[in-house]
Amino acid sequence: MCRATKLCCFRCLRWFEKAESEECEVCGDWKCVNCSSCLCDLTTREKKIAISYMATYENLLKELTDKSYDFKRHRRVLEQIGVKRDHLVRASVKS
Ligand SMILES: [Zn+2]
Ligand SMILES: [Zn+2]
């Protein structure tokens, strides 16, 4: 689970409340309440950037809080960018 309650939109860079936003059934992301962007609105190259940053911070949170994030929700995006879910969890933080 994404533990952030406020998310920064990667398109308009405005902050929005996760609780007020809708989940996209296609990409598993939360739609920005300001511009309604989700991962679907990004190019393949941009999706790689978004997912790599997500992986970086979710691995850090796993180290700090021991709660893991399941990238399964983004499986269609992962297929598109050609990365396996397991690859996104660093071996040293796997439980
Ligand atoms: Zn936005
Ligand atoms: Zn989407």
Notes on the protein architecture:
Strand 1 (6-8) and strand 2 form a beta hairpin. The chain is mainly alpha-helical. It has one domain (6-93). Helix 1 packs across helix 2. The protein has helices spanning 44-65, 75-81, and strands spanning 6-8, 15-17. The protein is 31% helix and 6% strand. Strands 1-2 form a two-stranded antiparallel sheet. The protein starts with 5 loop residues before the first strand and ends in a 14-residue tail after the last helix. One zinc ion (ZN) is lined by residues 9, 11-12, 14, 32, 34-35, 37. The site of one zinc ion has 7 residues, from loops.
Give me a quick take on this structure.
The chain contains two helices and two strands; from the N terminus they run ββαα. The protein has 95 residues and is mainly alpha-helical.
What are the SSEs and their pairings?
Layout lengths: L5 E3 L6 E3 L26 H22 L9 H7 L14
Antiparallel strand pairs: 1-2
Bound molecules: zinc ion (2 copies).
The site of one zinc ion (ZN) has 7 residues, from loops.
The helix content, as a percent range, equals 25-40%
Tally of contiguous helical segments: 2
Quaternary assembly: single chain
How many domains is the backbone divided into? 1
Which sequence of strands runs across the widest sheet?
1-2
Distance between the termini: 16 Å
Please state the CA-atom Rg, rounded to the nearest Å: 13 Å
H/E element sequence: EEHH
Task: Please describe the biggest sheet, giving its number of strands, its sense, and whether it closes into a barrel.
Answer: 2 strands, antiparallel
Q: What sort of overall outline do the alpha carbons produce when their principal axes are compared?
A: globular
Q: How would you state the average pLDDT, rounded?
A: 93
| Extended strand count | 2
The poorly predicted ranges are none
Which ligands occur here? zinc ion
**Beta content:** 5-15%
Which class do the helix and strand fractions yield?
mainly alpha
